[in-house]
Structures are given as C-alpha cells and as structure tokens.
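Annotated sample (chain length 246).
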Amino acid sequence: MKRLLIAIIWGILTVILLHAVDTPHVIQQSEQAYKRGYYHQAEQAYHQLLVEYPNQPELLYNLGNTYYQQREFGRAISCYIHALKQSPRDYATHSNLAQAKDNVIDMIGEQSTFWDTVLTALSYMSTHEWLATWLAAFSIWSGIWVYVSLQKESLALKWVGILAFFFFIVVTFPIGIVMKQEMTPQGVVVMPKASIRGGPSGSDRVSVVLYDGTILTILQVQKEWVEVKLPNSKTGWIHQSDIWIL
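Output written by the structure step:
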C-alpha cells in the first residue's frame, strides 16, 4: 500500500514537472514561429497554450495577431475583443482591434453613434471593476447616511449625504449598462462571405451577404442556425459555422 501511494505521488509530480518544462517551450516555439512568419504554426501553439491558460489576455492578443497576419480578420477581432474583456485598458489590443476593423468590408452602411461612443468609454473598465466601484460608492453613501442620521442638526452634513447619494446613483447607471452589455452575446463573422437568411434554413431567401469581421448581436440559437441582429438593427439567420459567438 505504501509503495502504491509513493508511485501515485511520483506520477503526479512527474506530470507537474513535465508540464512546467513543456509550457515555456511552447511559448518560445510560438514566438519564434510568429517572428519567422509561420503564422499558422504560431496559431496552433497559442491555441495549445490557451487550453492550459484560458482567458489569458496576452495569449489572446498574440493569437489575434496570428489571425490578423493571415488576413482572417473576423477571428482576429474575436480574439482582441475577448482579450479586452480581461484587460480592458490595453492600448496595443485596442489599436490592433481598430486596425482589424478597418479591414472589414462594410455592406450595411454602419455608422458610429453617440451611444456607441458611450459604450466604448464604459468598456475601459471591466465588469468586476465597475462592481467594485459600485460597492465602494454604496459603502460611502450608506456610511454618510448613517452618520447624518445621527447628526440631525447639521445641515451641511445633510447636503454631503445628498451629494454622496447622487454620486451613488451616477455610478449605478453605468453598472446597469455594462451588465446589460455583458448579458448580450455577440458574434463575429469568420468566413469570407456569410449569407443572412430570412429563416433558419438553407432554403430561406438570402436578405444580405456579410463579410469577414462583421460584428453581430446574438438573439437565439436554433440547432445549427443563429438568429442575429445586424448593425442596422435588422434581423436574420446565419449558419453557425459562419460565426464565432463571443
């Protein structure tokens, strides 16, 4: 029994040590492949690393770069967006995402609105950071409110309490927007061309053809078909193989 236990522990330690040795090798291999222009090889290596370290923003950024170099802009955009969810203020990722979007063929006539600007500004903080800010604002407001309640004769403190409550409301507003965005799934077209149809069937009429990199809002998934909302607010159905759901 003792020998069996030692063998099990030794096996576990061996796997851990091999993994520790192998991971830097894969990282080095992927970086060298990218520098030499072997982008598909680098892509495979980064995918392997993401299995071990999912949601790692640096790996997602590098994977996005390999797709960009292969002119697979939809996949690159997907990786950059995913990376920004983990590291929302990374300048290089924002810059490369903008470059990838510039290569997307726009057949819908999408135009940026004031609301898009607001959403972009709010995205510079992650959902966790917004929640932490909201909790801090709530703690400040509730603390001041309790103190003011015990100091009824102080008019100045009452105004401080009102201002703290106003600050709490101001912070609560973007929290609602960010949470709604977080709960609204998006998808990116990853094929050179993708047909948007009137229904969830290959026999339904094609309403518009979209190109690699177009970002869509996911409404529902029905077997191998996805109902989406286009940037111009129209809806339709796209085959699941033509889109990456974020």
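Annotation: Strands lie at 186-189, 193-197, 206-211, 215-222, 225-229, 235-239, 243-245.
Annotation: The chain has three domains: 2-102, 121-183, 186-245.
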